[in-house]
Amino acid sequence: MASENLLELNDIEAGYGRAALVLRGLTVKVPAGSVVCLVGPNGAGKSTVLKVASGMLAPRSGSIVVDGEEVTGSGPQSMIRHGLSHVLQGHSVFKEMTVAENVSLGAYTVKDKAEVQERVEFVKNLFPVVADRWAALAGALSGGQQKQVEFARSLMVSPKVVLLDEPSMGLDPKTTSVVFEQVVRMREAGIAVLLVEQNARRALETADIGCVLDLGRVHITGPAPELLEDPQLAELYLGGGGGTRDADPTEDPTPSEARSPELSSPAPERT
């Protein structure tokens, strides 16, 4: 029987090496067909959540459940097979390869050629710019277009949940709007998304559920529209007044152009 939540991170504690914990009892759940966004100050642990979810970082305690199956301790390749696809920060296209070659790399584990072609047609329909620039070199595309190529590549394994880490990093406001429109298109196509985004207001405008992280824990969670209307949240987190937090070594406090997501009540929950 399929689970209501496609991804569950339950009471996760995680960190790097012998350093202090970055995540301290964190719980995040991603229902089917939803966009769940993680927002919060730099160093809150947002990117670390995605690394744990994708198998890049093993949790010290807690559990990871994908579509009802516990997968705690699985590595990245196993997580892909279980239905998770991770789009990392920054640009990761191979600029000297065509859009077609970049997208096709996402299906390198799929042996059925007919299935690969079916996925190609799916992503072309979902992201028109990918279809339009199919034969072009990826390096000739704009930053926003390259991000759509990355999205398309991540969908070539038919994931249940896509993990997006700072998709608007380094993009101008107009291009950022286009990228968030593509996140909505993924949701409309039935793909759940767990989104980490520094642009908290824009992320909450896109998401169904919002989770505000602080000091490695979920401080507030609830329907994204209600979090947007919460004046205390707006003052502390949406206006950049969150103060200094423990550093997450994977989060860059100064992203720049140069660097080539449980809903159980109608009101936000506070912990």
Strand order in the sheet with the most strands: 6-7-8-3-9-10-11
Proportion in β-strands: 15-25%
The biggest beta sheet reads: 7 strands, mixed
Radius of gyration: 18 Å
Class in CATH? Answer: Alpha Beta
> Which class of secondary structure composition applies to the elements?
alpha/beta
Could you give the count of β-strands? 11
Portion in helices: 25-40%
CATH architecture: 3-Layer(aba) Sandwich
User: CATH topology, what is it called?
Assistant: Rossmann fold
Number of helices: 10
Q: N- to C-terminal separation?
A: 31 Å
Can you write the helix and strand succession as a string?
A: EEEHEEHEHHHHEHEHEEHHE
- Overall spatial form: globular
Q: How many structurally independent domains?
A: 1
Which spans have pLDDT < 50 for at least 5 consecutive residues?
A: 240-271
Give me the CATH superfamily: P-loop containing nucleotide triphosphate hydrolases
Q: Determine the mean pLDDT.
A: 87
